[in-house]
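[agent] plan:
  1. take the single chain provided in the ticket
  2. run structure prediction with default settings
  3. attach structure tokens to the ticket
  4. add a short note for the reviewer (M.T.)
[agent] executing step 1
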Amino acid sequence: MQEIVILLKALADETRYKIISLLLSHDFCVGALAKRLQISDAAVSQHLQVLRKAGLVKGEKKGYWTHYTVQKNVLSKAADSLRELANKPVSSDVSYSRNTSLTHDNLENRGDVSEYS
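[agent] step 2 finished; step 3 output follows
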């Protein structure tokens, strides 16, 4: 369970999501990613560090540069976990929905309902 949470947190950032999308089409070095994303090399490096720690990308030294590729097997496992979650049957146990603190009514009272609706 913890692995999928780490993966989802890594992919939740728009720039990291874009990096994964780019790397799925071709392997790139930091400079090439920075140019395509129009951000600094340092920013790309920081994003790649998060993606590496999540196991989503792997760097391979090619001469002077390190080229990054997506670990497709890790991405596929994450997709399988999400698919399994989406296909999970609805439980007839209503005790959870009664006890949760983030019900629609509670959010509405806080004024947060538009963010979650």
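[agent] step 4 note for reviewer: Residues 113-117 have pLDDT under 50 and may be disordered.
[agent] ticket updated
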